[in-house]
Every structure is written in structure tokens, then in C-alpha cells.
Amino acid sequence: MDPHLLRTFVAVATAGSFSAAAQELGYTQSAVSQQIAALESDLGTTLLRRRPVGPTDAGARLLEHAGPILLRLSAARADVARLSGQPAATVVLGVTPFAGAARAAEVLVPVQRAMPRVRCTLLVAGRDAVAAGVATGTLDVGLVDGVTAPSDPLPLPDAGQLSASVLAQSTAVAAFPAGHPLAGRRALRLADLADATWIDAPDVATPLPQLRALAHSGGFRDGLRYPGTDTGGLLALVAAGAGLALLPGPVTYPGVVGVPVTQPRLVHRVELVHGALTPPARALAVALQTAQTPRT
User: Fold this and answer.
1) pLDDT (tens digit, 9 = 90+) per residue, 157-172?
2) Closest CA to 281 of 48, 89, 22
3) How far is CA 295 from the centre of its chain?
4) Which of 81, 143, 157, 205 would be a feasible disulfide site paired with 201, CB 3.0-4.6 Å?
5) How far is 241 from 258, CA to CA, in rounded Å?
6) pLDDT exceeds cutoff 50 at 36
7) List of E strands, the chain
């Protein structure tokens, strides 16, 4: 399967338009049509309906595979480039919102001062974006966080051979507005919260599909959607009663109470992730590992 054809298919399916995909990719519309036809011929089935444009059942299944496939291809290219290219004069650190941007900055500043010819950048983004950025080489080092069972890895996209090490670990809590009937509880079962309304904030809080998987339960209906990465904004929404969120404890935001989730046992974990490291990126990774010690 030609990856160029696969990228074109993803662009058309995502945009819902051949012309919009052509503009995004820098092709003519006829070239895009020819590439989709070639991919359909290769797979022996129709992948896209033409009026209106949208994936068929086969196309929808291919779309599920396409993201991880293209990410792994980009990751392979970046990994080879990191090993064979010239030493970088830049270091980009990606941090997820609850992974500790303030602590990362405390490490990044002395590293920058020790290497004045290296330009350092700190970027805050969602966990999937950080993991994919490290895999594809747009980020040199990543700090990612998330909630998981103590013995399980963080639920990150399949981004190739990334090295990961635990930097910190804490109790996972359900965040309630002060005055909520359950805010005074000492502990809670996650399944008991399946009928509650939750804030849909996939880049900051635990995503709703993961909540359902952790609780082995349906429910967890979404209320207000929050696609941002500002932790203060999310906590303000919890305090205002927009919905619940599964977050790292302890919670110290005014008007928000964190109640530990004890069944199933869950932890909030911060991990350092990276691929092959340039000398400046290695210096940053070592500084981050030295500054933060795993804890339970």
C-alpha cells in the first residue's frame, strides 16, 4: 500500500471534499481523484462515496488503521534522521498540562544557560500530540501524564520505539465542585460515577472512552466540551458545576474537592519519553530525570 496514496485518502476523508484535500496537499483535484482511484484499485473496493464525500464501511475501517500507520512511518523517518543527521542546535521539550510545566521550566532554564548556543523551546500540548511529536521528531523530549492502573503503561498512541521512564506518581482523584453530595466522601468507586456528567477534556483530564474502559462500565456522559490545555480553565469549569474530571491529586483549586478513587486502584503518572537523543536533548533528559524522583 503506497503511503502517499494513504495520506491522500486520509486528507479527503477528513476534509469531506476532494477539492479541499487537493488544496491542503498542494495537488490538483484531478490528481487527488486519480490517487484515490489507484488506492481503491489496489485494495479492490470502494473507499469513498462521492456524493456526498465520505468513507464507505471499508473506508472507515482503513481510516482507523491509517493514523497509526502514517505515524509509524513518520516516526521511522525521524528516528533515522536523528541518528544520522548533524547535531541539533535546538531542543524542543513537549509537556502535557498536568505533567508539570513549572517544574519542566525550572530544569529547562539552567540547561539553556549551560548551553547558550542551543535554542530551547517549551511547548504545552495534549498527550497524543506530545507522544506523536517525539516520535516524528518535532519534539526532542516529552513529559506526558495520565491516569492508569499501577501495573499498566500510559495509554499513548502507537508511535514506535520510544523510551519511557517514570518521573512521578500520585493518587488519581475525581474532582467535584465544593458542595457536591459526594465531595465529602473519603474514597469512591469509579463505577459509582458512571451516571454523573463529565467534562469532555481529552487533552487535560482522563478521556471519557478511557474512563469507561477503566470502570468496565458504560455511561460517563459528556457535558461541556473543553478542547483546551489550560488546567486552570478546566478546574474553573469543575468548580462552576460543568461536570466532573478524573485528575491527579491532591487538588488545591478554590471550589474544587478531589476524592481518591480506590476501586479500581488508579494512579496518575508522569513519564519522560524520547527516541534517539542528540547531545543537547540527552542533557535535558538527564536533568529532568535527576530533578524528579518517582513517588507513590
Assistant:
1) 776 678 889 999 999 9
2) 89
3) 23
4) 205
5) 14
6) yes
7) 48-50, 53-55, 90-95, 119-124, 141-148, 163-177, 188-189, 197-200, 221-225, 245-248, 256-263, 267-274
Nearest to 3 by CA among 73, 84, 92, 96: 73
Name the one residue in this structure whose C-alpha cell is 516524528: 136
Q: How many residues does the chain have?
A: 296
Q: Grid coordinates standing for 274? A: 524520547
CB atoms within 10 A of CB 184: 11
> What average pLDDT does the structure give for the chain?
88
Q: What is the pLDDT of residue 113?
A: 86
pLDDT in tens, 171-218: 999 999 999 999 999 999 999 999 999 999 999 999 999 999 999 988
Does 81 or 15 have the greater pLDDT score?
A: 15
Global pTM reads 0.70
CB of 168 within 8 A of CB of 295? yes
CB distance 36 to 54 below 8 Å: no
Task: Pull the grid cell for residue 168.
Answer: 512521578
Regarding beta strands 197-200 and 267-274, do their DSSP bridges make them parallel or antiparallel, or are they unpaired? Answer: unpaired
d(CA 177, CA 141): 35
Tell me the sheet residues that pair with 143.
95, 272
- The answer to whether 54 touches 63, Cβ cutoff 8 Å, is no
* Contact predicate 267/172, CB 8 Å: yes
Q: Cα–Cα distance between 282 and 267 in angstroms, integer?
A: 28
